[in-house]
Amino acid sequence: MFTDCQGIPYPVFAKGEVTDCAFVVGAIPFGSVSLLKVRLESGSQEPAAGQFYMLHAIRSDVLLGRPISIYHSEKKADGSVELSFLILLKGKGTRELCSLEPGDKLNLIGPCGNRFPMPKSVVECARSACIETTEELNNGGFDTASGLLNHRRVLLIGGGIGVAPVAGFAETLPPKSYDFYASFKSGSYALENVKADKLVITTDDGSVGVHGMLPAALTEDTLRAGNYSEVFACGPTPMLAYIQKICQAVGVKCWLSMEAHMACGVGVCLGCVIDTTEGKKRCCKEGPVFDGDILIFKPVTEVAGIKVQPRREPLAADVQPDLSVNIGGVTLPNPVIGSSGTFGFGVEYKTLFDVNRLGGISSKGLTLEPRQGNDGVRLHETPSGLMNSIGLQNPGIPHFIEHELPEMLKLKPIAIANLSGSSLETYVEGAKLLDATEVPLIELNISCPNVSAGGAAFGMTCVGAAQAVSAVRAVTKKPLIVKLTPQSHELNQVALSCIEAGADAISLCNSFQGIAIDIERGVPVFEKLKAGFGGPAVRPMAVRLVYEVVEAINQLPAEKRVPVIAIGGIATWEDAVEFIMAGASALQVGTNTFANPNTMIEVIDGLAAFMKRKGYHNIEEMRGIIQK
Fold it and tell me: Do both 473 and 588 map to the same domain?
């Protein structure tokens, strides 16, 4: 066991076992907060009030542990320690923690950070009674009521899930030695162990206690009337800023527990710094509990020069958002398209889910002549994506027109023919054949990373891209989407060259290139050495490329601008919203369909629900909102 000079435990790496995990009664909506109990092995250090742990399930799909404050800790008869955590369901990591079951294993780093300092009034009372520990105070070694009669009380405040560490701190204080304010959006929870002299609950919806948020019950006048010596609080940043403000106005000391994104929990990554009058301080090391007087709260009105979006009212119950988008004069019922190379011709997935709900389907990459594709290994899974070296295996355009296209056209989604080639001549001949069909859109693929000739060679330079687009444009009147490669060092200019040459839309980005090595044999996995790479790992890079290309297109006169279709690592509706806010008009889902065939349906439904909740009537209202 390691502690500092004040007796605060240092963090260690430990393994724990889940003893219980259940939804918290009183949290609204039910299921939004879970109580997770974890037992540490015998001899483990008990945490101090205010500290936290980094929790990471051993069987996990997330990279980092999640910082969770201690709600309650208990030393068991066998010497083990049981820790209790309140977990608010927010994202993938917390959803994973809330789904744990008894017997599941956890990796823990902790206890991390500092603790809430013991109130001076309690310390002074203990000294006057010759009592050395607060445990003695709580166990009858001191008459709390009479002992604190001549001392000012302290005030504890918890907001939302921030009630957890404050309620844990309350357990270390003598009963009736403090007042407690708890503020929630709806309902109330985690107050079972609070033994306050006065307990005040506020709820934004009025479901419990005072109707309103914290200011509805706690003001400067309230602080003065309470004659408080110190305030201890944890909760949302706006609430803490308000507490700091009224405490400074009244001249009451406040201690505020902060939170920040972090990776390590031990002061190494420097990702969790908090602005203070003494410089940037680490939330995980110098915090999470800070002297309120040194904290600097900056109102967030813009990020990276972009204004924070004002709150919009949700759409009325009887109003549904319009998800339709226009690509090259063709209306898609929604912006979700099955990506070329990952969705065949659409009919293959008919028995797995309702493909007719999609906005469009981009066919397997098509060449004039049939192709058998590459030899050797074609697929290689990575922890965060999939590498492929298929090599454009396809039946050829004549066969597609006679057999596969009629089946695609029977489906409701807009059919898109993905046209590739090994030479400019084969592109042109293929385009001529497709122009004579009823296919509504052509996606010109000048970016395939897995073929020796043609493919990405045309999309690497402005000259090559313009040459390919001009040649195809000359032989077809079909709306033309041009699919670009992320490998080009002049991607923005390539996109603009394609538009100048006649592209009606841009899709990007095709697969990134990577190399995989078979370490047992000491040879490359793929016969062509390099292979295409897609999946969740590429998404942040793809979002950047989409943002930059849209930014370049926005410099053109309005009549020359074309829509951009985003591709790259989309697995959830949240990913789709990111691309749309970056400027994309539509999006293609690829790799994740292999992991979850329902991905695109979930994206469509999630996108619609998000738009309704956020008050967006159509895609265009939120498209490109982060563009300066």
Answer: yes
Residues paired with residue 73 on neighbouring β-strands, in sequence order: 83
Which pLDDT tens digit goes with each residue over 427-455?
A: 999 999 999 999 999 999 998 765 544 45
Q: Which listed residue (264, 448, 462, 498) is catalytic?
A: 448
- What distance lies between CA 419 and its chain's CA centroid? 35
Asked if residue 298 belongs to a domain, the reply is no
Query: Is residue 274 in some structural domain?
Result: no
Per residue in 221-233, pLDDT tens?
999 999 999 999 9
Q: Are 164 and 83 in contact (CB under 8 A)?
A: no
- The CATH number of the domain holding residue 192 is 3.40.50.80
Does this model's pTM top 0.90? My answer is no
> CB-based contacts of 538: which residues, under 8 Å, 6+ apart?
385, 509, 512, 568, 569
- Nearest of 483, 556, 481, 446 to residue 330 by alpha carbon: 481
Residue-range definition of the domain harbouring residue 454: 325-622
Residues 413 and 556 in one domain: yes
Residue 49 CA to residue 158 CA, distance in Å, equals 14
The total number of structural domains in the chain stands at: 3
* Together in a domain, 350 and 440: yes
* Same-domain check for residues 466 and 584: yes
Strand partners, 577: none
Contact status, residue 144 vs residue 128, Cβ threshold 8 Å: no
**Strand 154-159 to 105-112 pairing:** unpaired
Active site residue 448: yes
Q: Which sign, positive or negative, has the C-alpha torsion 204, 208, 210, 211?
A: positive
Question: By the 8 A CB rule, do 492 and 483 touch?
Answer: no
The DSSP output letter for 153 is -
